[in-house]
Write a structure and sequence with these properties.
transferase; 7 strands
Length: 201
């Protein structure tokens, strides 16, 4: 089923989303360059940003490698924002993909590092999304997930009903075949999980 967003005119909801994604508050809370510098990314690595949005992480990822960086988002308007940012920065190693995670059709075992920032709580099936990411990662490749903790004391963020508790995300990752490398709490509301795809036996 094709459920791409094909809007040509910016609507208020889209503009509001851009405003949030580009906010200084978000950049202070989750400094993208600092976070990328801590990741196991090498200069020749091929990277994938799923649910890339306005390129909050795509751009620093593209600056961290001479390899290809795939920016995947179902909304072509978001991809247009990334295209403009890349042009402004003089980056020519970003490839735009209009697709949903659960429909990910990239070559298996072709990616060294995947970023999934505040997107997994939006997918219809967490297990399917993680399995798709696992397929495209090379053995020894890494996945970094950022998500909102399911905590009633933290009001900001998506509805509590769709949030993914960190222990549930860890269970799904391990069930799929990932090894948990590191879990970090950015603040009371957001956590990160860095996971590695084990070598094939």
């Amino acid at each position: 089923m094709n459920h791409m967003n094909n809007h040509n005119q910016p609507d208020q909801k889209f503009l509001n989303k851009i405003a949030f994604l580009e906010s200084k508050q978000r950049e202070t809370l989750i400094p993208p360059e600092a976070l990328i510098r801590q990741m196991p990314i090498q200069k020749n690595h091929t990277l994938l940003d799923v649910g890339a949005g306005s390129g909050f992480f795509t751009i620093p990822m593209a600056e961290a490698t001479s390899g290809r960086v795939y920016a995947m988002d179902p909304d072509r308007r978001m991809l247009s924002v990334i295209k403009e940012k890349a042009k402004e920065k003089g980056l020519d190693n970003i490839e735009l993909i209009q697709e949903y995670i659960e429909s990910l059709s990239m070559q298996h075992e072709s990616i060294d590092f995947v970023m999934a920032s505040l997107i997994l709580h939006e997918v219809p099936s967490l297990k399917v999304a993680i399995a798709k990411i696992y397929e495209v990662l090379k053995a020894g490749g890494h996945l970094l997930c950022l998500e909102y903790e399911k905590d009633d004391k933290v009001i900001e963020g998506p509805p509590m009903a769709i949030r993914i508790p960190s222990d549930e995300l860890q269970r799904v990752l391990e069930f799929t075949g990932f090894n948990i490398v590191k879990k970090t709490k950015i603040n009371n509301g957001i956590y990160t999980v860095l996971a590695a795809k084990g070598a094939q036996i």
